Amino acid sequence: MHELSIATAIVEQAGEIARADGAGDVSSVTVRVGELAGVVPDALHFAFEVARDGTALAAARLVVERVPAQAWCGECAEEFALGMPPFFWCPRCDRPSRELRSGRELEITGVEAVPVPP
């Protein structure tokens, strides 16, 4: 289950971001996960609960924003959903696409933390 190593990295990076901002405990972390990233959101949620234990994120919630896989057809200027399993064939002109526009994302987009009292 590689989601555990991903969740551990999210916990570490979110903790670093909170410390750099002078904040205390983290209340939530938002991540964008692309449809083709190879990450199962439910498994990531479970792994995050394990990885956050005993850290500044112990009570934090994980918010996963799913990003659909989209391709671009340069032949007819059409953006289209790839689906699962991915099908890189333009539904409009019936030609293969060579450009993936979205779907491989795996990034932290937000960290909410509790300010440290003065």
SSE topology:
Layout: H1 3-20, E1 23-34, H2 41-51, E2 61-67, E3 70-73, E4 78-81, E5 99-102, E6 106-115
Parallel strand pairs: 1-2
Antiparallel strand pairs: 1-6, 3-4, 3-5
Helix pairs in contact: 1-2
GO biological process, one term: protein maturation
Family: Belongs to the HypA/HybF family.
Pfam families: HypA (PF01155)
Give a written overview of the molecule.
This protein is α+β, with helices and mostly antiparallel strands. The protein has two domains: 1-68 and 103-118, hypothetical protein PF0899 fold; 69-101, no CATH class. The chain contains two helices and six strands, in the order αβαβββββ. The protein has helices at residues 3-20, 41-51, and strands spanning 23-34, 61-67, 70-73, 78-81, 99-102, 106-115. The strands form two sheets. It has a three-stranded mixed sheet with strand order 2-1-6, with helices on one face. It has a three-stranded antiparallel sheet with strand order 4-3-5, with no helix packed on it. Strand 1 (23-34), helix 2 and strand 2 form a beta-alpha-beta unit. It starts with a helix and ends with a strand. The mean pLDDT is 93. Keywords: Metal-binding, Nickel, Zinc. Involved in the maturation of [NiFe] hydrogenases. Required for nickel insertion into the metal center of the hydrogenase.
- How does the major sheet shape up? 3 strands, mixed
Oligomer: single chain
- At CATH level 2, the architecture of the largest domain is 2-Layer Sandwich
State the strand order across the main sheet.
Answer: 2-1-6
Count of discrete alpha- or pi-helical segments spanning 4 or more residues: 2
